[in-house]
Design goal:
By secondary structure, the protein is an alpha/beta fold. It contains 6 helices and 7 strands, in the order H-H-H-E-H-E-H-E-E-H-E-E-E.
Length: 203
C-alpha cells in the first residue's frame, strides 16, 4: 500500500517497467539493506522506470560515462551499462555491499568503496552524476553539490536527482526534465551551468 502511494501518479508505468526489466535482466527479487545510520539512507534500488528514463536521456545526449553516488548493489550502473553500452561507475560507502559487487566480473563497470566527500571525483571525470537520495541530511546534500562545483568548475555536466523532492537547486542548475511520482518520489534531470555559481542552496 505504501508503494502504491509513493508512486501513485506513475504507478502503472512503474509496474510495467519493473516486470519488463526484471525479466530482461533476470533479477526478479531486488536486493536491499537497512543501514540504521543517521547520515545515510537505506540501500533500496532505484525503480526501473526511472532507470529507463535515465537510459533515454543518456542516449539522447550521447553521454559516454556515468557515476552513481551511493550505488548500492549496482542496479543503475549495471542496467545503464547494458542498455547504453557506456562506462558506468558506482561509489558505495558500505564495505560489505562493495565487497559483494567486486566479487563479480563486469565489462566497463567500475565499483569504488569509500566516503564520497573524501573521494577524488575529478579523476573519474564522468559526464553525468546520479544520486538516488543517498544522504539523510540536507547539509550533506549541499556539501556534495558544493564539492561538485569546486572539482568541476567551468565544465558542463549533467546531474540526475532521484527522490530529492523538497530540495531546490540554484538557478545554475537548469532543469531539463521532471517526473513526479508523489510528494516523496521523483526524478529530476539537470544540466549544470557552472558560470557564476554562488553556492546558495534553498531547501
Amino acid at each position: 500500500l505504501n508503494f502504491i502511494r509513493s508512486y501513485r501518479n506513475i504507478f502503472f508505468k512503474v509496474i510495467f517497467f519493473e516486470i519488463f526489466y526484471s525479466i530482461r535482466f533476470g533479477s526478479i527479487i531486488p536486493r536491499m539493506k537497512i543501514q540504521n545510520n543517521n547520515n545515510r539512507t537505506d540501500t533500496i534500488p532505484c525503480i526501473y522506470y526511472f532507470i529507463h528514463e535515465i537510459s533515454k536521456f543518456v542516449k539522447r545526449k550521447e553521454i559516454k560515462s556515468l557515476v552513481d553516488i551511493g550505488s548500492g548493489y549496482g542496479r543503475i550502473v549495471k542496467s545503464i551499462n547494458k542498455m547504453n553500452n557506456i562506462k558506468t561507475i558506482g561509489i558505495e560507502f558500505d564495505k560489505e555491499i562493495h565487497q559483494k559487487m567486486t566479487n563479480q566480473s563486469y565489462k566497463n563497470i567500475y565499483f569504488y568503496n569509500g566516503d564520497v566527500f573524501k573521494f577524488n571525483l575529478k579523476k573519474l571525470n564522468p559526464e553525468c552524476f546520479v544520486l538516488v537520495d543517498p544522504f539523510k541530511k540536507d547539509n550533506d546534500k549541499i556539501k556534495f553539490l558544493n564539492k561538485l562545483t569546486k572539482e568541476f568548475n567551468n565544465r558542463n555536466k549533467y546531474l540526475i536527482l532521484i527522490n530529492f523532492n523538497n530540495f531546490k537547486l540554484e538557478k545554475n542548475f537548469k532543469l531539463l526534465k521532471s517526473i513526479i511520482g508523489s510528494h516523496s518520489r521523483s526524478i529530476k534531470i539537470y544540466k549544470i551551468l557552472w558560470t557564476n555559481i554562488n553556492n546558495n542552496w534553498v531547501y
